[in-house]
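REQUEST FORM: STRUCTURE PREDICTION
Request ID: SP-0412
Submitted by: Lab K.M.
Chain count: 1
Length (residues): 211
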Amino acid sequence: MKITNSLILLQATASAEFIRLTLPEVSVTDDAPAKSVGLFYATVRFKRTPVVATVIAGIAGLKAIDIADTDIADTDGNFDFHEFDSIIVGAPTYNTGGDDHRSTTAWDDWLYEVLPNIDISGKNVAIFGLGKGIRYPDNFCDGAGEFYDRFSEAGANMFGFSSTDGYDYNKTKAVRNGQFVGKMFDQWYQMDETWGRANEWVEQLRDEGFF
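STATUS: Completed
RESULT:
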């Protein structure tokens, strides 16, 4: 059966609304002041990245921000995350096999035209990526690897490395030293794993002192 883009978008929107209604309340109970954390993502086409961003944000007690709604998408702007101690960034991979500009979102130009010219040294950064393990098994979440390279080159402190166990793919550019450079999600073929993976990752980031 052929599924239309409209139906896919409706399903993704419904999933996001269900997640929003069932997320637990999150509060900070530690004596130490919480770090200021921002979560930013970009998306195209089927809008599955916002669903994952909404899940992560809800668990972490954050707001998921589409960079299209900020001046980060303007490569002439000077958005540099200065108000945040830590940032979570995420995007899909559509330019499969590409050496660069792998997400085909507004992040792509920003990574090369803006990021090298702002001071992000010492900033805590965690990455989440989306891919299609069965359909594109040789390029799973490649965009996350590009994010890692660009942010680490800019001097950011990279957090949230995670296990590659449980994913269905052959190759990926998002692995360093045997681990994913952040948390990877497959909203096409492993949607039922999203909540557990996001919850596990947020707890890991808390343990790492990201929050």
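NOTES: The CA atoms of residues 31 and 148 lie 32 Å apart.
Reviewed by: T.R.
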